[in-house]
Amino acid sequence: MQEELKALAQAILEGKRNEAVELTQKLVDAGVTPKQILDEGLIAGMSIAGEKFKNGEYFVPEILVAARAMKASMEILRPLLVATDVQPIGTIVIGTVRGDLHDIGKNLVAMMVEGAGFKVVDLGVDVTADKFIAAAKEHNAQIVGMSALLTTTMTYIPEVIKAFDAEGLRPKVKLIVGGAPVTQEWANQIGADAYAPDAATAVDRCKELLGAA
Amino acid sequence: MTSRERVLCAFHRGTPDRVPVSPQHFGRIPPDSDLAAQLVRETDIMLYAGWACDCFVGSALPRDVETTGNMTRTVYHTPYGDLTRVVTRTPVTSACTEFPCKNADDVLKLLATPYEPPTEQTVQEALRHFFQRKDWLGDEGVVLFELPNALCFPAEWLSPQDFCLLWADAPDVMEEMVRVGNERLLAFVERVLKAGVDMFRIVGGEYASTQLGPVAYDRLVRRPDRELVALMHDYGAIAYFHNHGPIMRYLEAIVDIGVDALDPLEAPPWGDCDMPKAKSILKGRVCIVGNIDDMEVMNQRSTEEVLAIGKKLIEEAGPDGFVLSGTASGTYGEHAARNFIALARYVRSQM
Fold first, then answer.
1. Across the interface, do B295 and A102 touch by the CB < 8 Å criterion?
2. By CB distance 3.0 to 4.6 Å, which of A155, B48, B144, B204 could disulfide with B149?
3. Is B97 in Cβ contact with A99 (below 8 Å)?
4. How does DSSP classify residue A88?
């Protein structure tokens, strides 16, 4: 079954959705554990995709089709993972902040961190501090990710950070920020726990925040 | 030299009397303010005007527009079915939250729709905007006609995600959309060239460079934009190219397109510009415009720091074929404006 697991990882890497689904079903039928299929097939493939994205070999289309293939395979695997009590490595609440309607960056991060084994709660766009806080509490999130594409909307991120502080949720909940106008320097200034310049790096930062890197 | 002569000399890769210092448009400075007047007087400002008059879909596509609350819904009626766009507004921005084309089939519906070019009235409105601005500015700077390249056609009609997926799943449809868009764009550009527009700012390359990658850049930007720039040059116009984000791997393609000038060549962490290396590739071929970051540097750092950065850039990128500028974010404020003026005074002091 090792060959089939490698083939599944390759199918994910190449965005071959139908092949990924077939191989996932084949592995399930052969009695391979859902966790092993997830770790050595799906996450393994997405992890290589993420490295290629960081290295400038893969671009957004390649990540999208890889994520699409993984999502299709997860339709088969998800109920089996639940049934065997396999837990995600962590839970992240993610959204684009209040006033901002752009979501491609946030969507890519959501796909990549899900592909790395996180449970993702995507709040969409135009998200207020209250909504971030409510979702973090409801889902027992370890991480909250905030995206802003505009200089006029990134100024809301410090307000969300203050709201989390006021709610007493930090340092238990870690806050990671990103988006076109956001920089490491600015993230440091406003007291964010982490910053990621792109979706692939966001996976690394999220794992570090959990101590799971 | 006048500001206009200075900038044009740099665009033609010559060595002007001094390196132009060119803020790009007024940023957040009110154009009728004293500070704006000082920018015009003391720098070699570049302004933008005009627009492409919806030339990609033209004037024959029937549509219904309805605004409810903070959303405007436009339904385009093609002979093969309706396509819907929704623009949503928040207190700080507006953005398209639903794009008309969701997939390759929708694109093909759009492309099969009968096309009529923009009406003479709409073209005249855009020209009036350009020439009024140009007359107002005179020799105190340059005015560039804002123009999307053909890749903006799919980028404006598909969501960012669907745009990327179209390239992955149906690259032939994407290429056809760009080809058709370019045909329509060239026809529009020829109209405004004949009307006397002499300088264009072409945008859209970054849809490929930041999202799709080098293969897409070659097929969807380099090839059509070569034709576009060649047309502009046939009429003696300047072709100025704007392309945000990491740019070093695309410089040779941009040279091949034949543009006269390129901005903003952002430095890390916003881009990847290695200025001495960029100059070695572009020298004599493309004028460099940039690259002091508007938001973090021009807007926030002290004048002494900005002058030090400016001096280094002049050494690395000038004095020929170089315009010292920001990074075209449109967000520079009063502090940045005063930094631009300080840079202009410094450059003048070196004459």
1. no
2. B204
3. no
4. P
Annotated domain spans of chain B = 3-59+115-349, 61-102
| Closest in A64, A153, A185 to B93, CB measured | A153
Q: Quick check: helix, strand or coil at residue A2?
A: helix
CB contact under 8 A, A153 and B92: yes
State how far the Cα of B201 lies from the Cα of B347, in Å rounded to an integer: 25
DSSP state of B96: E
- In terms of average pLDDT, the best of A179-183, A195-199, B92-96, B173-177 is B173-177
Distances in whole angstroms, Cα of residue A40 to Cα of each of A7, B121, B217, B244: 10, 62, 34, 38
Residue found under tokens 């790096």:
A201
Check if B167 contacts A (Cβ < 8 Å): yes
User: What is the C-alpha separation between B176 and B48, in angstroms, rounded?
Assistant: 30
Chain B, residues 23-52, CB within 8 A of chain A, namely none
- Fold of the domain built from segment(s) B3-59+115-349: TIM Barrel (3.20.20)
* Phi, psi for residue A171 in degrees, rounded to 5: -90, 5
Residue bearing the bigger pLDDT, A213 or B145: B145
From B95, B167, B246, residue closest to A102, measured CB to CB: B95
Give the model's pLDDT for residue A212: 58
Domains identified in chain A and CATH numbers: 2-83 (1.10.1240.10), 91-210 (3.40.50.280)
Residue bearing tokens 């868009």: B181
**Binary contact (B92, A152; C-beta < 8 A):** yes
**pTM for this predicted structure:** 0.94
Interface test with B, best of A151, A152, A186, A188 (most B CBs within 10 A): A151
Task: Identify the three-state secondary structure at position B69.
Answer: coil
- Taking the CA of residue A123 and the nearest CA in chain B, the distance in Å comes to 15
Tokens of B78: 């093609």
- pLDDT for residue B257 is more than 90: yes
Task: Compare CB distances from B168 to A65, A98, A101 and report the shortest one's residue.
Answer: A65
Would you tell me which residues 275-304 of chain B have a C-beta closer than 8 angstroms to some C-beta of chain A? 295-296
Say whether residue B169 is in contact with chain A using an 8 A CB cutoff: yes
pLDDT in tens, A90-104: 999 999 999 999 999
pLDDT tens digits, one per residue of B306-350: 999 999 999 999 999 999 999 988 889 999 999 999 999 999 999
In tens, the pLDDT along B87-113 reads 999 998 899 999 999 999 999 999 999
Mean pLDDT of A106-128: 95
Q: Across chain A, what does the average pLDDT equal?
A: 94
